[in-house]
RNA sequence: GCUCCCAUCGUCUAGCGGUCUAGGACGUGGCCCUCUCAAGGCCAAAACACGGGUUCGAUUCCCGUUGGGAGCGCCA
């Protein structure tokens, strides 16, 4: 979700500025980067409608450039080999911290001038002795840190693999990146990257850090507890435009506007209106946005998004029909998610309906059997299966049974034909289901009343 | 612990020294509508974290406190 929003901001910014968006997969950590995790990125971006101009590039495939950069730095004396082992470092680190001082790498190998034959070693960037690594962040404004606060960071592991911080800088340079828009978790990393640009004698790009999205309560998003990916929300039945608008409004605003289409985000997005405090992901707003889009999306589009959910609910592939279209329109105002909508539409696409226990208990009571029998007879005799005609039948039946309140008749019928106590208006529901199936289900309900 | 960052209703936010008895939206409560559930309409409760400055005047600027977050990896 955080990456999704970052991607959205990058996309909107580039599109509005007339620039080019570059997609690069930073997959240098073999354990974390799998084929599936990469596919999930394309899948999520595709769903949201975020496209890019160059790439995708895989950082892992750019290894030769990273290696060359490290060699160059080494040759120029801007980096040096270090033979300190993790254990030694940990020991010294612990000692320093115990003495109440702050730890950064102590520079033990910095002046050793170790050669390539020094054994197993890492490569560290030789930071200037003093000075400040500062930049003007496009969101946070003046930012920076004194070099004294940063140690000589490792840029190549002892197994020869380059580190992320080195790889991003080398790749951003190679790809001509002018603007880096990323999560605020990288804000503290930036000074070090700035030092790398200095060592490489290249001008750094412009940086914009966007505030993090956190869990309700202000805590970090947890994979176990919270929906964390855009796909998680998709699976819960949220529409792409709802997701887009929700994401856009976390950390960014445009006056009092609450609803944005993708085109509006593209046209209006500006870094100046991005603010600096983390936003809590509150799904309540998402649900509202989702219902808004469920209510307003053109039918074919809504139908396309709904079908997978409906097929899952019906347990067979569901094809669009005019009746289904009519029902979906009726369900728009009663569904916050596609999952809910599919549950409410299920009665039309399958005949395997079971009465919900509570609904049956409350509305399908033995004593109403004569009522349903009466209604059933009249419905069978009805030639014109239209809502006005159905209404007239209901009126007649109610009149014949002592001016029965509408609810006493509509609710049992609703349970009989849908299995549940919730549906669109009863005449509309009957009209959509059709005469044969409606009458059949009422007959079944009568049987159920008499024989259990 | 150290460095950096953040701080307006429960939540997302508007506000960029006087227009603020602080606006909008979601959510919440009430009423209306009503064959269920919704949707819709109307109304309501709800915030400038605290303490110092600066200023004729602070939600808005500065400092501190408190609270929260990020970073401090041979992760990205």
Structure overview:
With 452 residues, the chain is mainly alpha-helical. 49% of the residues lie in helices and 10% in strands. The chain has 19 helices and eleven strands. The protein has a three-stranded antiparallel beta sheet with strand order 3-4-7. Helix 15 (369-380) packs antiparallel against helix 19. The mean pLDDT is 93. The structure holds one RNA strand of 76 nucleotides.
List the helices and strands and how they pair.
Layout: H1 2-17, E1 22-25, H2 35-48, E2 54-58, H3 63-75, E3 79-82, H4 86-98, E4 122-125, E5 132-137, E6 141-146, E7 154-156, H5 164-174, E8 179-183, H6 190-199, E9 206-210, E10 213-214, H7 230-235, H8 240-249, H9 262-268, E11 279-280, H10 283-296, H11 299-314, H12 322-331, H13 338-349, H14 357-363, H15 369-380, H16 387-400, H17 406-418, H18 426-433, H19 435-451
Parallel strand pairs: 1-2, 8-9, 10-11
Antiparallel strand pairs: 3-4, 4-7, 5-6
Helix pairs in contact: 1-9, 3-5, 5-6, 8-10, 11-13, 12-13, 12-18, 15-16, 15-19, 16-18, 17-18
The chain binds one RNA strand of 76 nucleotides through helix 4, strand 6, helix 5, strand 11 and helix 10.
